Amino acid sequence: MTKFPDGFLWGGAVAAHQFEGGWDVDGKGISIADVMTVGDNNTAREITDGVIPGKNYPNHEAIDFYDHYKEDVKMFADLGLKCFRTSIAWTRIFPNGDEIEPNEAGLKFYDDLFDELHKYNIEPVITLSHFEMPYHLVKEYGGWRNRKMIDFFVKFATVVFKRYQNKVKYWMTFNEINNQTGLNEWGLFTNSGILVQPDEDAEKAMYQAGHYESVASALAVQIGHEINSNFEIGCMLAMGPVYPASPDPKDVLKAQRAMQANYWFADVQCKGKYPNWLKKYFERKQFDLDITLEDLDVIKAGVVDYIGFSYYASHVIRADKSEPEDYMTPTKNHEVKNPTLKRSDWGWEVDPLGLRYALNWFSERYDLPLFIVENGLGAFDKVEADGKIHDDYRIDYLRKHIEQIKLAVEVDGVDLMGYTPWGFIDLVSAGTGQMDKRYGMIYVNKNDEGTGDLKRSKKDSFNWLKKVIETNGSDLN
Ligand code: BG6
Q1: pLDDT cut 90: percent of the chain above it
Q2: Catalytic residue among 294, 374, 410, 470
Q3: Higher pLDDT, 324 or 461
Q4: CATH match of 9-470 with 3.20.20.300
């Protein structure tokens, strides 16, 4: 089989709050990630009212990349990365989110980081907002329920676009913007800073926040292109294809509905307009959302250049007997297990073919370049007697996914910009706050209790991925 296109962006992905640490240094403000405690597979993370002394907040130190970035970037270069996806912590730049002037120390940190990356010819790929908006904006303004967020976000985006216009070319606006469609409290909080109140309609709050974020994203795209016409600015979506549980047309329609409900954000960001079904749905539900004609013009003029997306698992859905006629039950997903697939230790279905399906689905529907900016296996790793981590299970996962990516590119003709496996250096899980849910090719000695000397070492998957990158994907053995 032939190789990937020249210039293919092989890389690795992380997010500021999950690996930087340094949560309160050099003027950084408190972010929403800083008030989330550690959980596990069976225990949800607690969202506390401010930072409460004595609680275990895993993102506070994370893996302390803030103080290790030079040695870490050197290791990234050894791995052969062509690009490195991270996010800018909004609270390093605007600690509270509503200041007039940015925090110079925060800006300087990313200047230094981008310089360090360029020293090794590693291209930064930057997400503006990855689950870590300023906590002050949540407390003071109610998060993305409030239209004022648009101005705060656009200001933040403008400052960093201008500052790094010669250091960063690839951008994404909001990480997994559609991760809140499931309406779980955690998803709404991390995406939009919304803790649903007892008297609040969670679905309405999600649509309103999603609309303001879409407007902010579209404005950022326009402003970014004015600052540097070479910028490539993408959206970022969580992709989990939803399959029908059976050939029963009810299940098929239900699965189609679930996909529509999950990807309306993509319609807005890529096509510049709301899908018709959703306009009808808004009318029927009488949400009375704040969506102005001017907003719709902004959305139209601010479509993205590419689609960045994460892919971990697929889902299966069944229409139950009480399914309403409109097949819209966003809060009750009726998900069932896929009997044909194995699951990870955290119950995520492992489905390499689903990635090829996803690539084709996006490609056909939006006709834009695609960028797989997250993929990987969260697993327990064991340091063996020889002091090494033999993570053949991770290699197997990545190999099978890359094989499907190759088919999508070479057989299906999908236009793919790059592939950045998630958490290629161990970091704090967003879902559970654990360190022991590891995705990395680089091991970091730290555990769920927060102890460990933070020493970095190479797992077997490090050498495997290094070879894959060196051969531009032709040697996957
Ligand atoms: C995506 C997020 O949802 O999945 C990442 O963009 C996250 O921030 C990743 O870490 C994996 O999820 P988890 O819960 O295993 O960390």
Answers
A1: 92
A2: 374
A3: 461
A4: no
